[in-house]
Amino acid sequence: MTDTHCPYCALQCAMSVTDGKVSPREFPTNRGGLCQKGWTSAELLTSPARLTTPLVRRDGVLEPATWDEALDLVAAKLRELRELHGPDAVGVFGGGGLTNEKSYLLGKFARVALGTSQIDYNGRFCMSSAAAAGIKAFGLDRGMPFPVTDLDQADAVLLVGGNPAETMPPFVQHLKGAELIVVDPRRTATAELATLHLAPAPGTDLALALGLLHCAVADGHLDKDYLEERTNGFAEAWQIAASWWPERVERVTGVPVADQRAAVRILAEAENAYVLTGRGTEQHASGADTVSAWINLALALGLPGRRGSGYGCLTGQGNGQGGREHGQKADQLPGYRKIDDPAARAYIQDVWGVDDLPGPGRSAYELLDALGQDGGPKALLVFGSNLVVSAPRSQHVADRLGALDLLVVCDLVLSETAAMADVVLPITQWAEESGTMTNLEGRILLRQVAVERPSGVRSDLEVLQGLALRLGQPVERFPIEPEVVFEELRVASKGGIADYSGVTYERLRSGEALHWPVVEKSTPRVFLDRFAHPDGRARFIAVDHRGPAEMPDADYPLQATTGRVLQHYQSGAQTRLVKELVNAEPEAYVEVHPDTAVRAGLREGDLGAVVSRRGRTVARVRCVPSMRIDVVFLPFHFAGEGRANLLTNPALDPTSRMPEFKVCAVRLEPV
């Protein structure tokens, strides 16, 4: 029996693997629980869909090759493209499911072995807006700056744009003692548990947050002592919120005035209260400002940095937190250092033994949009992402991938993106390798090898070393043992915002709870004494509502929003191979109000087409009476013509560069 953690979401439920089967174990985050995905996670370890041999495209067909053939081909093509077009002719795309060690070495490989600035990862599509807002308000971004178990003592929780009852079910047990207020356009499984459900029109969360701040002031709930002692900038934020009186907010959002006031009253009167945000409120072209508005509300009520209360963000991907801390993002170096900071660059150059580093590159969607274009990358290496399904405006992204001179995909199955590749490299999966993950509460966890890897499969670290050696790098610069990589990561992160220097595998193996920053001691609660700005005070950020980038009109009268369901995860490349999960949710569907379906000439169970300005998705119609009449919902886990992201709008947040996944104008029609 080997103790490890689930391969899926950022709750990182603790489990044990015995003879290739999983069982839950007691741990603070999941307390002996697993969701349906966790229970079935071992099925992929022996799946017949598993890749065990490198594949190389010859005459248009992917055919088996040896590792040396595949790596030699990739390295030769990379050298050729760099010589012809410069180092930025090669791009790298990572993933929020990669371990800290892989994330770290991937960033090092891109900037040292390739010399490219063109690296980003799918976490840009996940937590970037919350990260940007957290840094502005608090001076650092740790999604949840307190342990999950602190929520057990909450009297009230405002959960905005999250549906953990489906996306991370064991998390919900931490909310059972609280009055729960859920903000979501849909009547989700989580909203069903709530004391109060606020259902704003998609894209109007920022107006609602401004309205709740207005209520907090107008109804006498402002924590004036806290504002004076621990914050700056309230007057500027209030100057905007003052014009968002509840009646105006009701007209814009559809949320009744009485419910707005009730939500604020519940939070203000609670002894311990939390504001938590999720992707639903963050994946917008105004996502960073929207999260800032929710943080402003939390600050006005005196919640952040107080034991038993606070603001937090529910990280989505398994290593969404750690994945952005150590070098996968276009603008960051290990330890959450900024790549354009001269001192940070000098420190990392010294750790890596190099004289220079490239500067900031393109953000995720901008990188994908530039592929094969003049001045854009001619080759892309993909680790831990299935872009053909998960990227916004996904057919355009698939077209850009098809325009590359070289597409290399490392994956454990032939995902939709791998099927387009020139070279596919089969890699180990969660139970076949060791490595650390950083969960939604900033706790560093150790996954350990639980089963033997199949013959012919290599780890991502081995792939990076194999390519680095062929590109002229010394072998010691790209180690393949995770613990050796982590020892270097400790040094590289030392002194940074996300300082892991005090974390060791030995401490993790002993079961010690280590929340970063860890110099010597763990920091489970980051802001109790001071915030991370130089003056120790949190910042209100003055923001205003501007609405979705794309509004409904006569041709596209509805709004589409997307999300996850219980049985599937991310692009579905893995969960769509698990029989039990596919039997439960076999195909793409669209939830609509029954009257909306009738007006489109559709009934329950029909195949309907959802059409936006970017594409057309075909999905099975589900009539849901609780849906807003002007909204349709699609899960984004399905491939082919059922891809929800054929519709989505790549309009980007100006700060976080987050695409507007959560709202676009559509029409519904028969197939």
Description of the molecule:
- The chain is an alpha/beta fold and 671 residues long.
- Strand 4 and strand 5 (61-64) form a beta hairpin.
Strand content: 15-25%
Tell me the major beta sheet. 7 strands, mixed
Estimate the helix proportion, in percent.
Answer: 25-40%
Number of E-state strands: 29
Q: Which spans of ≥5 residues are poorly predicted at pLDDT below 50?
A: none
Shape, per Cα inertia axes = globular
Structural class by SSE content: alpha/beta
Q: Quickly count the helices.
A: 22
Q: Give the strand order of the largest sheet, numbering strands 1, 2, ... along the chain.
A: 5-4-18-17-16-6-7
Radius of gyration (CA) equals 24 Å
Mean pLDDT equals 97
What is the rounded distance between the termini?
Answer: 51 Å
Keywords:
single chain; 671 residues; alpha/beta; six-stranded mixed sheet; 22 helices
Secondary structure topology:
Layout lengths: L1 E4 L8 E5 L2 E4 L11 H4 L15 E4 L2 E4 L2 H19 L4 E5 L5 H15 L4 E3 L6 H11 L17 E5 L3 H4 L11 E5 L12 E3 L6 H14 L5 H7 E2 L1 H8 L4 H8 L3 H13 L3 E5 L1 H4 L4 H14 L9 E4 L6 H4 L8 E2 L3 E2 L3 H11 L11 H7 L8 E5 L3 H4 L3 H9 L3 E6 L11 E4 L8 E4 L5 E4 L12 H11 L11 H12 L11 H5 L28 E2 L18 E6 L15 H6 L4 E4 L1 H6 L7 E5 L4 E8 L7 E5 L13 E4 L6 E2 L3 E7 L1
Parallel strand pairs: 6-7, 6-16, 8-9, 8-12, 9-10, 11-21, 12-13, 16-17, 17-18, 22-26, 23-25
Antiparallel strand pairs: 1-2, 2-3, 4-5, 4-18, 14-15, 19-20, 22-29, 24-25, 24-29, 27-28
Helix pairs in contact: 2-18, 3-18, 3-19, 4-12, 6-9, 6-10, 6-12
